[in-house]
Amino acid sequence: MDLTPPVAVVAADALVLLAPANRDRLALCASPTCQEMFVDNSQSHTRRWCDMNICGNRSKKARHRAATRPPRSGA
Ligand SMILES: [Zn+2]
Fold this sequence. Notes:
75 residues; mainly alpha; two-stranded antiparallel ribbon; 40% helix; binds zinc ion; Znf_CGNR; Zinc finger CGNR domain-containing protein; ABATE; ABATE_dom_sf
């Protein structure tokens, strides 16, 4: 559980992104409305979003909505 305040996260992220050791782990957020750079610290290097709680959830919700949208019975 990460309870760091958002501002601190942004500042820390900037430093992390600049670290040479993290260059090969840089990735682009998969959210089309975000496209933020982030360092993929996951073991499998399959992280897709800059922040799972923001972009990850947003994307999941959008997909969930599309998948569970009730068919419109017109007429
Ligand atoms: Zn993002």
